[in-house]
Amino acid sequence: MRVLIITVTLICIVAAVYKTQLIKVESRRKKLFKKGLWSKHLRKKNHFRATRPRTKMGERVYDYDDMEYVANISLGSPIGQQTFLVVLDTGSSNVWIPEVNCVTDDCLKKNRFNSSLSKTYQEDGRTWSIQYGDGSNAHGLLGKDYFAFGTTMKDSLVVPNITFGMARKLGGFKDDPVDGIVGLAFTSIAVNGVTPPLIAAINQNQSIMKLPLFTVWLDRRVRKN
Q1: CA 177 to CA 183: how far, in whole Å?
Q2: Any bridge partners for residue 69, and if so which?
Q3: Which domains are assigned to the chain?
Q4: Angstrom distance (rounded) from CA 212 to CA 199
């Protein structure tokens, strides 16, 4: 079992821990191998990295899309009405999910957020655009609503007024078995300067989180004969 553990404190006395189970999905590499598209994908990704402007010297690291662990979140209210499978990304700080009006090929098989179904949705009015290191990208509008690590009010860490991206256009996510991405990094690298959910939990809930940290526990996976 893989578990994301978020340490919090309630009423400054009783310590509590929220756990979000991580789910292992079939890797993008395996899917592309099955379709005979892996070599093309790898050439495209390495070309993008080779031509991307470099601001610092360093050793190139190759990512072969070998595996991915994902988790469930909920956006909007009531909590649990609209749920999504996401990558928990420590290398980025933005939350985004495809919106209902996204009809590109990359969006069609994904769960999409419908703002009209949420009782607490607020328009932001700004646009956003993200380009990731592997060449994938996402673009759309910003909105604000309840965010929950999990899919039920009872067992989830719920944070109000989270600004998140509603993607109207995606590139490079067609074969990725997730709906979107939840960034766990710091506000300083967030596109549009939005506040990531964990940081917002500290700021909004009167320091309900005892420490500004989270941990990931990975159990040993043994192949059974």
Answers
A1: 17
A2: 24
A3: 2-50+68-218 (2.40.70.10)
A4: 7
Q: State the virtual CA torsion across 159, 162, 165, 166 in degrees, nearest 10.
A: 70
Contact call for residues 140 and 167 (beta carbons, < 8 A): yes
Specify whether the CB–CB gap between 217 and 69 falls below 8 A: no
At 80, give phi and psi (nearest 5°). Answer: 95, -10
Q: Any idea how long the chain is?
A: 225
CB 148 within 8 A of CB 158: yes
- Distance (Å, whole) CA 90 – CA 4: 12
Query: Three-state DSSP class for 17?
Result: strand
First to last CA, the chain: 19
Paired tokens of 89: 């990304």
Determine the 3-state secondary structure of 181 from DSSP.
Answer: strand
Q: At what angle do helices 28-35 and 38-51 cross, to 10 degrees?
A: 120
Side chain identity, residue 68: E
- What does 125-174 look like in DSSP terms, one character per residue? EEEEEEE-TTS-EEEEEEEEEEEEESSSTTTSEEEEEEEEEEEEEEES-T
Decide: pTM greater than 0.70. yes
What's the pLDDT tens digit per position in 45-101? 555 555 555 443 333 333 435 456 688 999 999 999 999 999 888 889 999 999 999
Per-residue pLDDT reduced to its tens digit, 98-157: 999 998 899 999 999 999 999 999 999 999 999 887 788 999 999 999 999 888 877 778
